[in-house]
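It is worth pausing here to work through a concrete case rather than discussing structure prediction in the abstract. The textbook approach is simple: state the sequence, then state the predicted structure, then interpret. We follow exactly that order.
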Amino acid sequence: MKKIAVLLLLAIPGMALAQKEAKPNINKAMTALKSGKLDEAKSIIDAATTYEKTMTDGKTWFYRGVIYGALDTTSSYNSTENLASVAAESLKKADELSKGKSSTYFVQDNNGGMLLYDQAITSISNSYLVKGDKAFNGEDFKGALKQFEKGIAFKANKPDTTFYEYAGYAAYNAEERKKATDYLAKYAELGGRRTQALTMPALLAYEDQDYESALTNAQAVLKIIPNHKDMKAVELNSLIQLKKYDLAAQNLEASVKANPNDAQSFYLLGVLNTELGKMEDAKANFEAALKVQPDYFDAQFNLANYYLVEIDKTSKAINELGIAAANAKKKQALVQTRVKQSEAAIPYLEKAEKMKIPSKEAEIELLQKLSLLYYYIADDKNNERVTKRMKALGVED
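Step two, the predicted structure:
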């Protein structure tokens, strides 16, 4: 008996060495996930991806993608891994191993319904969107950005413009402007066509005085939306800031020739000519813009400025004469000249005043100019009128 016992004991180590590795049960991984046993689900499915009999089965990788996606969208699960990327890579491998049959893969949801391969991807993707949207509406912009970036990682194999657009907005509100422009640029590259998303990179670059980027982005938008007013303005102003006057003129003259009913092109050409000191040309451009669009405030206001330039020159000459008695007669003549110039300019400003003014700042600037001209011609009644309006707008004396 003792001998037999010894033999049995000796045989035990050999038996242990000969034991086969336990086959991971991928269905148990899904059961564990549904039961809230998250670590167990992850452990089983990870083991299945290295086990000889299951590592080449597309369904293994499909389950892994679903499990990792579920873990990443479950607020109670914390991990230092990039779960979204692992999920995306796993689902891609599942498709590759399926030999064109990944659409037949499915898991059962908690209600017993079937969730097919594409539906599972949509479900996980929507979870990132919902969580990101909730964070964004709660003004947790960094949290929203994190969720949208997870969605970008998860949909890396089939990029989704929605995630890039939302990530751009979240990044902007989180004051991460570089990310905002990068994500929105990618949105456009992928075929996104929402106007706000397309134009933001150019507007942000211009605001940051990065005129090269502003120009590049504006011109990219204009290829898609040729007559977008803000982008045409950004393009022109960027060219002016970069001192590319010839190119600016060529673009605008070609635009005017191609579309003689485009009031903005005439207006922008007037702005350019004003910048170049070609005041008579600028005046003609603003008049042409108003002929096409009679209620064009900016064109009307800039046309008035044509007259204000001469008034400023006269005022400068008056100030340079000082108070010397010898210059009194000459000074009086210049004052009378300024009165006549002001009387010529006022109707243009008054006409602009009756138009729809685009902003409070523009209205204040207009009223301040009118007030000064009324002062020059001693029109106290109208000066009092515009002063009262300025006070209502919050302008202090």
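Step three, interpretation. The chain has four domains: 20-139, 159-243, 245-294, 302-392. Residues 97 and 212 are 47 Å apart (CA to CA).
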